[in-house]
What does this fold into?
Amino acid sequence: MSDEKTRALLTSDVQVTPGETDVARPTWSGRLEFILATVGYAVGLGNVWRFPYLCYSSGGGAFLVPYLIMLFLCGIPLLLMEFAIGQFTHLGPVHALAKVCPLLKGVGLATVVISYVFSTYYNVLMSWALFYLFNSFRATPPWKTCNNSWNVFENCSSGFPGNATDLQSASQQFFNHRLLEKNNGIDDVGGLQWELVGCLLLAWAVVYFCIFKGVKSSGKIVYFTAIFPYFILFALLINNMQLPGAKEGVLYFVTPVWKKLFKVKVWLNAAAQVFNSLGIAFGSMISMASYNKFNNNIVRDALIVSFVNSFTSILAGFVIFSAIGYMAHIHNLPVDNISTDGPGLVFVVYPEILCTMPAFQLWAPLFFLMLLCLGLDSQFANVEVALTFIKDEFRAQILHFFKREELLTLVVCIVSFFLGLPHVTKGGIYVFQLMDHYTAVVSLTVLAFFEVLAVCCLFGAPRISYMIERMLGKPVNIYFRICWFIMCPLLVLCILVSNIIQYTPAQYGTYRYPLWAEWVGWGVSLITLIWIPVGAIHEIYNNKGSFLSRLRTAVTTTVELVVEDPLPEKQKLGNTVTETSTEHLNTTL
It folds into this structure.
């Protein structure tokens, strides 16, 4: 479609009247705050454990091929798309997506629900980091020896026995029997672990005091939480590369196994890593972008966030595997007998590695403080999605009931704390793994598909391009247009179909969940996704006329916004636009 036809389509019903829908909405104090907040959200614990593990288990350096392809064809364009929606509408995901595509308005509410559910168990990881942080100040770390009351002496090894034996390291037993007090399965959840309950309460207190003033407080906190981890990562890398065996670990990490590129699972892992790491379909990026000024350069920001996120993942890979190579060297084991999946890489292997390093008392607290910062940045954004929705929807009622918005934030954090308690029981790790599988894997894949369907297909790539052109004053690169029009819908559809065909039930290690737990997991997934069909039915029901007429109305997009017109006079699209005006797009698809 030519630029002239696109502009004619988009401006055919432009009404330029003063508006006041966005007068009271706060904005970031500066562009750097937004970049740091989004970088902090994108760069999380998954960069430290999930990316390195996927890289070495999915073909080493060869994994970077599908990862970078997915990043450039799907990740960056969809991130820019979410930035554009949030910044142009100055609304959270619920109201923004309802205006973009009323038929799929439930997608916005689903993003809020999935982000909030995710936040209730993600903060459990922060409680683990706090627990390790407090224990790291001891003269002798409790995960170093087998002489503790929680150790199972007959199969405990003070060194690292590797994955091929029946022995467990002292670090593994500390994680299982001291931190988790793990029982035999989800059937026997057991009582609360009061030390972890205290850590979880402290974690939520930290989150509250960082976000209770909205972007005005979290925008200042991210100057530390987003930057500090890089000092620690670079310091650890410099230290690790001087250790014997580090070279072998790094080579194992980056050496390509090209035959694995022909496995569909490797490509699915790459896509999942891009989506999870950049926060696509969680609604957080839309929420944070909604606090931007109208003419903020989101193309630049999307590229910065994507580059920093990928760079951090690769940097963390060098840090982790240089240390694993050192671990393999001192225990005379192959490198592939050291690493482990999931939280074990951070909470089992690395504490064991830290014990063997010079100046343990320095590195251990700094490492766990780094984990805390990485997790907190992501948690800020997850909670902010729910708060943005509530404020956008019920601001008048909230101010009447609570008097101050800080009290609303307090209530949300308290409720979230109580919802996280099942994860800090003696069977909490099984609850955690079940929730994570059906929320961050199953639900997120479906939700991403419907978001792309709503925005890229029904709203359309030309309209996304127009929104960005109105904000930045120049056309969008054709690369983004092609990705929105063809590549993103096609790739996301392939990911959804492949995940359905290759679906595997949730499991924790070798533990397989009973049938009732699987149904609970599907129930959690249903809670996050039910809003999509409910919203579509509600929209069609409320419209008038025949079914086709109702459906046509349901896919009619209306976007209203108070904007400062950034375009020079010669670039205005034939409309009389006041300096401060309301842009009203009412285009029938």
Summary: The longest helix spans residues 428-472.
